[in-house]
Amino acid sequence: MGELSKLIETFQREGVRRAIMAGQVKHKQIFSSIRPDWRLAKLLLSLTIRNTDSLLGAVAKVLADEGIILEKSTWLLEPLLVRPGVLTERAPSEQESGNIEYGRQVAQNLAQHDIGQTVVIAESACVAVEAMEGTDATVERAGQIMRSLHGDASTLSRALTVVKIAKPNQDMRFDVPVIGVKTIEVMQAAGATCLAVDAGKCLLLDGEKVIEAANSAGVAIVSDEGKRTA
Q1: What pTM value is reported for the model?
Q2: Alpha-carbon dihedral sign for residues 112, 135, 52, 132
Q3: Integer Cα distance of 124 and 105 in angstroms
Q4: Which of 134, 145, 129, 225 has the alpha carbon at shortest distance from 180?
Q5: What domains does the chain contain, in order, with CATH numbers?
Q6: Can you list the alpha helix ranges (DSSP code H) found in 47-128?
Q7: Which one is predicted more confidently, 145 or 151?
Q8: Less crowded by CB within 10 Å, the N or C end of the chain?
Q9: Burial 196-227 (b: 16+ CB within 10 A, else e)
């Protein structure tokens, strides 16, 4: 991680002209564990904004300048893209549907600034928003916040709804939303009962296992075909 020059040299030596990004690069790693080589350091210093799109977009441009085209990260994973509709045995309740509608408005405003893709809602109130920490940590934090509201002091339902969306102009080459079994496990531990995602722009890893885990936990999963709230 961080050895951009070595990456390019290896690709060119082996005749690689097309590449795909796979796996997760947490945004906070850019500011911690990565030790950039001169090429990546120069790239980082040239950026006025260091969000995900700027960072990875700049890397993609450097690769393109060297004759290496970055393909969509979903190119070989089309069957894993979430289909539209209710994916679980249970559909969202009326309250959860209200949370989703409000959560999408909040998440879309965040996503257009490339701040984060996930918000956690309870009774149409925003409990937590994602920034650099990632989705799992956001959901965990929401659960901690709700547990801290003791007894009758809280007017909010303890049940949380997680809304994870793609960016308005999602670059499918990188940072595509992903959910897996761990997502459901983290939600269950936090007291989240519903998950909303974007159809066709979110990867469902180990699809059947995710749905089975959600059904066992009583979690509803629903996907939208990209409808945007004005």
Answers
A1: 0.85
A2: positive
A3: 11
A4: 134
A5: 4-70 (no CATH), 78-224 (3.40.140.80)
A6: 52-65, 94-111
A7: 145
A8: C
A9: bbbbbbbbbeebeebbebbbebebbbbbbeee
Residue 147's Cβ-side half-sphere holds a number of Cα atoms within 13 Å equal to: 10
pLDDT of residue 6 exceeding 60? yes
Eight-state DSSP code of residue 92: P
Tokens standing for residue 217 = 């936990």
DSSP strands (E only) in the chain = 18-19, 69-70, 85-86, 118-122, 125-129, 160-164, 178-179, 192-198, 203-204, 220-224
> CA 53 to CA 138: how far, in whole Å?
20
Secondary structure tally for the chain: helices H, strands E: 7, 10
- Look at residue 137 and give its three-state secondary structure: helix
